[in-house]
Amino acid sequence: IVPTEDDFVDHADTHTGALYAFCCRAGGRLAQSDPGTLSALGRYGRHVGRLWILADDLTHLADDEAAPHLVQRARAGRPILAVAMGAKVDPMVGTEWARLVHCPHTVLAESLAERLVDAGVLQQARQAMVQEAWSANRAIRALPDSRYRTGMEALATHLARVA
């Protein structure tokens, strides 16, 4: 029941990452891009998809919406990277997550949110966001310099600064 970092990556890659990768490749196909460009666009989309989920989670975990967000994610059984990281630092994070999955209640979620902050994993998750932004921008570095590539780089960089 306690998510791992691999669970988060698998979920992100098969949901938002897959959607963004498809959209980026679709734009490349419409422009009749070569296979190398399509591959780069797909990698970019996958990393931005992971980044988007991280930004969404961290935005909620860093403010007053942490408890409702954790309840929603627990009900959906959706892995949160900060929880996976926190369970490695503090085993009680995993225990509290398991309780929350079985009984999605705001009081349990508030306790878990405090434990995540105390474990220092929100900063680790922010570092993961920066890494995803860097990987996204690296994926398209080989593409010709253009306003489109510049815009894509700006999007990834901005998302990494959101939370």
Describe this entry's structure for a reader:
By secondary structure, the protein is mainly α. It is 82% helix and 0% strand. It is built from 9 helices and no strands. It is elongated and about 50 Å long. The mean pLDDT is 95.
Keyword list:
single chain; 163 residues; mainly alpha
Question: Strands, helices and their partners?
Answer:
Elements: H1 5-14, H2 16-30, H3 35-61, H4 66-76, H5 81-89, H6 91-102, H7 106-119, H8 121-139, H9 147-162
Helix pairs in contact: 1-2, 2-3, 3-8, 3-9, 4-6, 4-7, 5-6, 5-8, 6-7, 8-9
Summarize the structure.
82% of the residues lie in helices and 0% in strands.
Outline the low-pLDDT stretches: none
End-to-end Cα distance:
26 Å
Name the helix and strand elements from N-terminus to C-terminus, one letter apiece: HHHHHHHHH
The percentage helix is over 70%
Mean of residue pLDDT?
95
E-strand count? 0
The helix tally amounts to 9
Radius of gyration: 17 Å
Strand % is under 5%
